[in-house]
Specification:
With about 575 residues, the protein is α+β, with helices and mostly antiparallel strands. The protein is built from 14 helices and 21 strands. Strands 1, 2, 3, 4, 9, 10, 11 and 12 form an eight-stranded antiparallel sheet that branches.
Length: about 575
């Protein structure tokens, strides 16, 4: 399919995250360092639904085989519908992480493999996925939607459905022959192996991210035909092929491309592609698959795979007169079993459900919704109080039956450094001259705001070589006071010299006195009766805030600095 078009649709999911990162990188709140361990528990009856009305005394909790005392107990049942008018997206992604950390909220991520959500896949799953998002997610649910063309850092959690609906309904999926998608795979350096690598990277990153966000269960609905585990060193293994190599400029990785820049390091595009294909061919995919399962259990992330292929049968039939068809049939049966087994293994090892071997996708997706419609949350303080970073196994039993019930499998104990409060960062010391300049700026602004009579407050430090500065807008001779400017302005600062001046230099400082990488051209105009020092300041590159311009003036053996503060509003 058309990778660029789908990426444009899906990329809007990451706008909030990318904007937050541009302002100031923020990490999810790490909840695993607390000593109290929270365990979500799902005791079910014969009808498969959660048994309600239980108390803390009905449960037994074991950590590494040792009984634990239940200290906290709660039961949460979630509403299963939110009117469109009441859906609210968090203002920032950090706000979303904070909500997700609350056990009273649920978190879902839908991941779509374009190879599975094709013409037939969209026809089968479009309506069930719409129903899940619009009818089964309540006011205390957050969800995100990604494709395997995305990176895990693109995840944005929210409640609004507009972007998700656009992805699910996109006509880019409906190419009946899938030729666009197959063309993309052939062009991609590494072919289907690179697509598989991208899929693993996305899922591995999501598991780690969601594990940092909260301890309670997180659910990943994965639309996929199977998670392959080809043998390393066999050119891609079962049903995988690696092309001889793309022409120059063809992408070699997620979002990357091979262009002229690669030749600077001494590698041609084809050499870079050969290196990438060699890396892919030697990955131990089976180990990678099981490592991802281990990480998911520790992070309490449940996978709910959905295969759009439904109930499959081989395309050939066994007959006594066609022995070649017998071998082909068994190969097809083996491929079908391998695909389904990978999804079943993914679900069974993470307390999820696999919707495979069924053509009733609506019923299957409803089973996923009902599987997490309610749960108990037990909290205990481990008898093993060591902060050693080890992985510990949890089991929960019902006292009435003695049977183990479905619950969180594992957790990783925090290390001592994780539970110790981080040292407070040292506050930067502001040079006295910078502080004085800022104080004079504030005084000048307040004087104007309160209409204080008297002479204007000097905005610069005292100096014997030059007078206090004046500021004018570019193309104007009208002085500006106080020094408060808009970001769209280009201003000119002028200092009249009291005598001969040999050299001038200027640099821009932040409000702590730290130099900024913003060149300030300073010049000396000697065409007038008294020399004038001039500095040009285009402000479009500066954020809102207070700044200080440091001017160095030299005359013979005398050198002085003058600090002028100004505000960008």
């Amino acid at each position: 399919m058309n990778r660029a078009s789908v990426s444009v649709i899906v990329a809007s999911l990451a706008v909030a995250t990318l904007a937050a990162q541009q302002e100031q990188p923020k990490r999810p709140v790490f909840r695993g360092g607390t000593q109290l361990v929270r365990v979500d528990v799902y005791p079910t009856g014969k009808d498969g639904r959660i048994v309600e009305g239980l108390t803390a005394d009905d449960f037994e909790v074991f950590e590494d085989g040792k009984p634990q005392k239940v200290e906290t107990f709660d039961f949460d049942r979630f509403e299963t519908w939110t009117p469109d008018g009441e859906r609210r997206d968090p203002k920032t992604q950090q706000d979303a992480y904070d909500l997700a950390a609350d056990p009273a909220w649920r978190v879902f991520v839908i991941v779509i493999d374009p190879a599975a959500y094709n013409f037939e896949g969209q026809r089968e799953l479009r309506a069930p996925l719409h129903e899940f998002i619009e009818r089964n997610l309540g006011p205390h649910d957050l969800f995100g939607l990604l494709t395997t063309e995305n990176q895990w850092t693109d995840l944005t959690l929210g409640q609004q459905t507009t972007v998700a609906n656009g992805v699910l309904d996109s006509h880019e999926w409906t190419d009946p022959m899938g030729w666009q998608w197959q063309t993309h795979l052939r062009e991609l350096c590494g072919g289907e192996m690179k697509h598989l690598d991208n899929e693993y990277t996305l899922l591995e990153g999501l598991v780690k991210l969601l594990g940092m966000v909260r301890e309670e269960k997180k659910s990943i609905l994965l639309v996929s035909n199977g998670i392959a585990t080809p043998r390393p060193g066999r050119g891609g293994g079962r049903s995988f092929s690696i092309p001889a190599g793309p022409p120059a400029g063809m992408p070699i990785g997620r979002g990357g491309s091979m262009g002229h820049g690669d030749a600077i390091g001494g590698r041609s595009p084809s050499q870079s592609c050969d290196i990438e294909m060699g890396r892919l061919a030697n990955i131990d995919w089976e180990k990678r698959f099981h490592d991802m399962l281990d990480d998911a259990r520790r992070a309490n992330v449940a996978f709910y795979p959905i295969s759009p292929r439904g109930l499959e049968a081989p395309s050939t039939h066994i007959t006594q007169t066609a022995p070649v068809s017998v071998a082909q049939t068994y190969r097809e049966l083996d491929a079908i079993n391998h695909r389904n087994d990978s999804l079943l293994t993914l679900a069974e090892n993470t307390d999820g459900l696999a919707i495979v071997n069924t053509n009733d996708f609506a019923k299957g997706v409803r089973r996923i919704a009902s599987d997490v419609e309610a749960y108990y949350i037990l909290g205990y303080y481990p008898t093993n109080s060591q902060f050693d970073g080890t992985v510990r196994t949890i089991k929960v039993r019902l006292k009435s039956t003695g049977k183990t019930v479905r619950a969180r499998h594992q957790y990783r104990a925090p290390t001592l450094s994780e539970v110790s409060p981080p040292p407070e960062p040292a506050k930067p010391s502001v040079p006295p001259a910078v502080k004085n300049a800022l104080d004079r700026l504030v005084t000048s602004i307040e004087s104007q705001e309160h209409d204080v009579d008297g002479s204007p407050t000097s905005l610069a430090s005292a100096s014997s070589l030059v007078e206090d500065p004046t500021a004018v807008r570019r193309g104007s001779s009208e002085p500006i006071a106080p020094f408060v400017f808009a970001r769209t302005e280009h201003i000119r600062l002028e200092w009249r010299a009291r005598g001969a001046v040999d050299r001038v230099e200027a640099r821009l400082l932040d409000r702590t006195g730290h130099p900024l990488a913003a060149p300030i051209p300073a010049a000396l105009d000697t065409s007038q009766s008294s020399p004038v020092v001039i500095a040009e300041l285009p402000l479009t590159a500066l954020a809102h805030g207070d700044y200080v311009l440091e001017l160095t003036v030299a005359a013979g053996a005398a050198t002085e600095q003058k600090f002028t503060a100004f505000r960008v509003k």
